[in-house]
Every structure is written in C-alpha cells, then in structure tokens.
Design brief:
Layout: E1 10-13, E2 16-26, E3 34-41, E4 47-51, H1 52-55, E5 59-60, E6 64-74, E7 77-82, E8 88-91, H2 93-96, E9 108-114, E10 117-122, E11 126-134, E12 141-143, E13 146-153, E14 158-162, E15 170-174, E16 180-183
Antiparallel strand pairs: 1-2, 1-5, 2-3, 3-4, 6-7, 6-9, 7-8, 9-10, 11-13, 11-15, 12-13, 13-14, 15-16
C-alpha cells in the first residue's frame, strides 16, 4: 500500500484534497510495520496524520497547472483570470498563502488545479522589486561585517538591506523568507 503513496502526491480523503508531506514506517516487534502519513490540506494548510490503512483506498487526484493572470484585489480576496478560458476566480487568504505583497496587477503565474478547483498558487521563489524608500545610514543595525538598514519596497514590504542600497534601486527578494538576496544590475537582470 505504501508503494502507492509518494511525497507531494495529491490525494482525496473524505472529500478533502491533501498533499502527502511525509511517509514513515514504524516497526514494533513482530507485527507488520505501520505506515504513517503526514498530510497537508490543500485548501487551508492544516496538517493531519493518518496511517496508510486509514487512507485506504488511496485515491490519487489528477491535477494540472494552468496559466492565470492576476487582475485586482477585492477586500481580502484576489481576482485571477484563466488566460485560456478568460474565466475569473477569487482566491482567498488560504490559497494565497501570505504571498499577497508579491502580486502585481497583470502578472501571469501558474495555479495548480484539481478539476475546476484551484489549490495552489505557484509564486516564484525570487522576485525583483524596486526600493521605494530607505532609512538613513545612521539608523543601520548589525555587526561590523554585516551592517543593514531598513528599506520599504514598492509593494509596502519592509526588509533589511546593505548600506549601499538606495531609493530607486531594484533588488531581488526571496518570497518565502522575505529577505534581501542581492541588488539587480544590468548583468543580473
């Protein structure tokens, strides 16, 4: 049974979609090993643990990525359009996963669908943003080898950047950690 389960697989269990996050076997004496599976709810991110026997029969869900264009914000939701069918979808905070500051109107990205249900917004790991404002060097913090100052970016996000970064510079930001990765120059763009 555990041969059917794979990490990152999308399954349906009791009417919910789950991603398989971890699979472990536990041995106790001479009994057959118990296969424990950690699942993450595809819609709200909750984690649950089940044994493979509790999940039986395992129903893998076919899924596909579809190109979507971000249109606009509507309260705490974001409106996306399927670029092939022109159908509009409202994505709530659970689906957006905290990536709202990195969305730009008109930008295209991939969205994982199971049938007609959007499950996962595929945000690039790194994005390029423009520095809107930086603190004066006198407000810098850090050790002698790593002195940083606050900077506010075009999307309102505040990050710590090296002293040489100034207003108007383009910098690369990690969307997962929200940390500065480097300055964008003509060669790295």
């Amino acid at each position: 049974m555990n041969a059917d389960l794979k990490k990152n697989m999308l399954i349906r269990h009791h009417g919910h979609y789950y991603f398989v996050e971890n699979i472990t076997e536990r041995h106790s004496g001479q009994q057959r090993p118990a296969v424990h599976v950690t699942l993450r709810d595809a819609l709200d991110g909750r984690h649950i643990s089940r044994t493979a026997d509790e999940l039986a029969p395992i129903e893998e869900v076919p899924c596909q990525y579809r190109p979507m264009q971000y249109l606009y914000a509507k309260a705490d939701k974001r409106i996306f359009m399927d670029t092939q069918t022109f159908e509009e979808f409202e994505f709530g905070p659970n689906l957006l996963g905290g990536f709202e500051p990195f969305l730009k109107e008109g930008e295209e990205m991939r969205v994982l669908f199971a049938g007609d249900q959007p499950l996962l917004l595929d945000i690039p790991e790194n994005v390029i943003l423009t520095v809107a404002d930086t603190a004066a060097p006198s407000h810098a913090v850090g050790t002698a080898a790593n002195i940083l100052k606050e900077a506010r970016l075009e999307n309102g996000l505040e990050v710590r950047v090296p002293l040489f970064i100034k207003t108007g510079d383009q910098i690369r930001i990690n969307t997962r950690t929200r940390q500065y990765l480097g300055k964008v120059t003509a060669q790295t763009h």
